[in-house]
Amino acid sequence: MSGYGILGCGAYVPLLRLPRARIAEAHGWLNPARAAGVRGERSVAAWDEDALTMAVEAARDSLRDLVAQVGIDRVQLVSTTPPFADRSNSGLLAAALDLPETVVATDAGGSLRAATAALRQLAADRAPTTLLTASDRRLARPGGGAELAYGDGAAALVVGPGEPLAEILGSAGLTRDLVDHYRATGEDFDYAFEERWVRDEGWFALVPDTARAALDAAGITAGDIDRFICPAPARVAKKLAKLIGLDDAAPADPLLDTPGHTGVAHPLLQLCAALEQATPGQRLLLVGFGQGADALVLRTTDRIGKPSARTGVAGHLARRREEHHYMRFLSFQGLVDIDWGMRAEHDRRTAQSAHYRKRDAINAFVGGRCSACGTCQFPASHVCVHCGAVDTQAPHRFADSRARVKTFTEDWQAHSPAPPLMYGSVSFEEGGSVMMEYADFAPGELAVGLALRMAFRIKDIDERRGFRRYFWKPVAAEPPQEAR
Amino acid sequence: MADGIRDKVAIIGMGCSRFGERWDCGHEDLMVEAFDECLSDAGLEKSQLDAAWLGVFFDEQNTGKSALPLAMGLKLPNIPATRVENLCATGTEALRGAVYAVAAGACDVALALGVEKLKDTGYGGLPERTKGTFEDLYLPNSTAPGAFAQLASAYAAKYRVSTDELKRAMAHISWKSHQNGARNPKAHLRNTPSIDDILNAPMIASPLGVYDCCGVSDGAAAAIVTTPENARRLGRRGPLVTVKALQLAPSDGTEMRHDSWDGSHTITTPIAAERAYREAGIRDPRRELDLIEVHDCFSITELVIMEDLGLSPRGEAIRDVLDGVYDADGEVPCQIDGGLKCFGHPIGASGLRMIYEIYLQLQGRAGERQLPDPRLGLTHNLGGIPIRNVAAISVIGLHGA
Questions:
Q1: In the 8-state DSSP scheme, what is residue A185?
Q2: Chain A window 395-414: which residues touch B at a Cβ cutoff of 8 Å?
Q3: Residues A50 and A178 in one domain
Q4: Which of A187, A448, B312, B378 has the largest count of CB atoms under 10 Å?
């Protein structure tokens, strides 16, 4: 019988990093003590990124090594900040990934523990191959601790039977309504209770027993654990390790300095980071926390450490662009009401029937390839743009293609939440040219011939109707890696 | 085999409103201003018109749909009237309708009038409009300057010129049009910025600064056409101005979808130009054309159009521009009236405004900016944006020239 566990893993952390010192600079007047102690930097989703777009990128990263080998039966999008309360976010995720429409797509959330709970359930059920994504873009009120602590990001695991990177040996869980923080439906911001109470009555009281139960279920002892993965501050994790009886060196980097706490994604993001560094035969203890606790024990296999095409956590953390403007950070989250001028009044209503007709083009970036002359083109059309043959175009997906800048501009007149709006014609390596909006570039960076890859992003936000539409945008194939 | 319309139709009257931010005028005021001049120039009565074509681009912005705004605004006596729209080639398209009707013998005297009232949006630049239910889903929320600025990035890369070098030629183009526009009492912009003013202006869509962009204007222009024979019969004295060619080339989708286009020029202009030169019997346009009015919506557009029209060799427009080939005293004066840049760009009127200038110049009626003895002129519109556009070309000359 084959094993069951993590067949692939991937991550996504937005390119933008806001040094906490910059937040402290803005708020030093109101809480000098908090401002004094800050360090590190938090990841910041650009205006056109949300829990869905980040999940898509993490999912693509997790599939990079195994698209050919693994059929995905189920897709889960776990988030406490999904863009839609009633529209299948996971269904759109599946569409963006161009998965077969027979895939079972489910949304989950409701607690920061939802991703570890979902992973436990998959293992317990030995569920068919599942793409489990976890992603959060949590808002925080300016000036508070959450604004400093949070980061934006996503992680994805391909979980199922086969030859895993890491087997899931056992798990345990506890559900208890300890309200360390909460956010009512429809509210923007979390409300958190005193950290010291959460630490003593929450982490220290709930996690050790759950961890021990998971170790028992896996049939190993605390001393066997090589890596302790826990989405808590380092000092809390260190004390927990002692309480559970783990080696002092077991706690993994909590990834809280950078990129910050990525919410429901965080334990999976940490797990991905641990798997990137692991060697075969290591035992990992993974914890989730939120109105109870989860604990899972995993063991890495010989497949670990092999060369991988994924960018992963390490790769994403190496990519970096510093956000110099605290106000832009606020604006990207809609926390400041900028005067965008009259051009921003333009109605961005979506004709759902038109979107539905063109769903493959828009969601999955599928154009056509002419079977008569081989020309790839977007959007697909009845008549080939090159040879004129009629109805010869087979679906051709551009989302995973490499491309280059053919033309570009930095447009200060066009409305954009991140001026200037940068766009131009993009040449795809297999042929085909599309005028597209560039993402994640700073003024002065675009150049004709620059290498690009495609990313799934928010295209427009229809504030009036609470709708947002998505499309693909070219980003740099080799993103900047600014030194700190 | 069709032999084209060379010399089959004469322009016997033209009118053009003052262009500019005509805050006190609506489309009807502008139409009447152009039409009154046109009708009196032709020496006709309204009752002598047999048919009319109206050109309006932003119908939802200003004038409204159909040709009724023209028919009702001018109180035309229930003659056939049709509204045409073909992006920035709309004005030329209105003339094309009237000229073809006369050439076909379907009517004796036809009116073409183009109008645009843009300055009611409350903001600078062209109005924000939907691109359509599907295209809004994937095309960038581009602006006109941003769409045309793309030409500059590809041109600079293709010919390995620095942006600074290209910018200097672009600045000369705008400088020249301001110099010309200053001598045109109907022009929207009559100031004369220096090359440094132009180079140091605020950026609109890189590398286009504010002086690289044409005026967004209100205005109207009109023409009355008939056959040369009928022109004489109607008592028209002096040299007749006739249409030598009217050609149109819309994109077929290549620019938007196929990589064979490198983005540094327009595909449609050389096609329309080749047809127009053939129709007009022009073999060497640089030598034979005495003046040209081209679609200088942005300075970079004018630069690449000089090559697309076959006036400058590929890759050499920068040199020709800086050498003054297209200046008022140059080999081929371009935008002698100020062009879109300074005369202004009320979209539906622009094609007819260009022809108005050629018409005046050919008759020696261009006042302070009159060129010495021109016999043949060309107008060019580029409707749309480089990735999908309509090129329209007219050649207008003295009868028999």
A1: T
A2: 406-414
A3: yes
A4: B378
Task: Note the pLDDT tens digit of each residue in B365-392.
Answer: 999 999 999 999 999 999 999 999 999 9
Establish whether B88 is a catalytic residue. yes
Give the count of domains, chain A: 2
**pLDDT at residue B61 is higher than 90:** no
- Check if A471 contacts B (Cβ < 8 Å): yes
SS3 A29: coil
Q: Do A312 and A352 have their domain in common?
A: no
Examine the fold and report which residue of A296, A330, A364 is the final residue of a domain before the chain moves on: A330
Q: Identify the three-state secondary structure at position B198.
A: helix
Give me the domains of chain B, ranges plus CATH numbers: 10-120+218-233 (3.40.47.10), 142-214+243-398 (3.40.47.10)
What average pLDDT does the segment B77-91 reach?
97
Q: Distance (Å) from the C-alpha of residue A415 to the closest C-alpha of chain B?
A: 7
A461-481 tens-digit pLDDT: 999 999 999 999 999 999 999
Catalytic residue among B25, B88, B297, B342: B88
Asked if A385 lies within 8 A of B252 by C-beta distance, the reply is yes
- The answer on A362 and A266 residing in a single domain is no
Determine if the pTM surpasses 0.90: yes
Q: Is B123 on the interface with A (CB under 8 A)?
A: yes
Residue of A nearest to B134 (CA): A354
Is beta strand A153-162 parallel, antiparallel or unpaired with respect to B51-55? Answer: unpaired
- B390 three-class SS: strand
CB-neighbour burial class of residue A85 (10 A; exposed 0-12, middle 13-18, buried 19+) = exposed
Residues of chain A predicted below pLDDT 70: 1-2, 67-69
Query: What residues in B contact A423, CB-CB < 8 Å?
Result: 140, 142, 146
**What DSSP designation does A462 have?**
E
- Is there a single domain that holds both residue A291 and residue A391? no
Do residues A14 and A57 share a domain? yes
User: How high is the pLDDT of residue B393?
Assistant: 98
Which of B123, B153, B208 shows the shortest C-beta gap to A448? B153
For residues A369 and B140, give the distance between their C-alpha atoms in angstroms, rounded to a whole number: 23
Give the residue-averaged pLDDT of B238-256. Answer: 97
Query: What's residue A68's pLDDT?
Result: 57
Cβ separation A379–B204 shorter than 8 A = no
Instruction: Mark yes or no for CB contact A414/B258 under 8 Å.
Output: no
Q: What is the mean pLDDT of residues B238-264?
A: 96
Q: Which of A339, A381, A407 to mutate to test the interface with B (most CBs of B within 10 A)?
A: A407
The reported pLDDT for the residue numbered A66 is 83
Task: Give yes or no for B145 touching A (CB within 8 A).
Answer: yes
Active site residue B27: no
pLDDT at position B285 over 50 = yes
Mean pLDDT of B110-125: 95
Q: The domain containing residue A310 runs over which residues?
A: 3-330
CA dihedral B3, B364, B375, B345 (to 10 degrees): -70
- The answer, for B135 touching chain A at a CB cutoff of 8 Å, is no
* CB interface of A with B, residues 311-330, below 8 Å: none
Q: Flag if B258 and A460 touch (Cβ within 8 Å).
A: no
Q: Choose among B9, B5, B35: nearest CA to B111.
A: B35
| Rounded CA separation B318/B322 (Å) | 6
Tokens standing for A326? 């605290």
Query: Across the interface, do B141 and A347 touch by the CB < 8 Å criterion?
Result: no
* Residues on chain A touching B149 (C-beta within 8 angstroms): 409, 411
The whole-angstrom separation of Cα B226 and Cα B62 is 30
B33: phi > 0 → left, psi -120 to 50 → alpha, else beta; which?
alpha
Q: What is the ipTM of this complex?
A: 0.96
**Res A182: pLDDT:** 98
pLDDT of residue A69: 56
Contact between B257 and A469 using a beta-carbon 8 Å cutoff: no
Domain edge (last residue) among A301, A330, A359: A330
Query: Chain B partners of A377 at a C-beta cutoff of 8 Å?
Result: 257-258
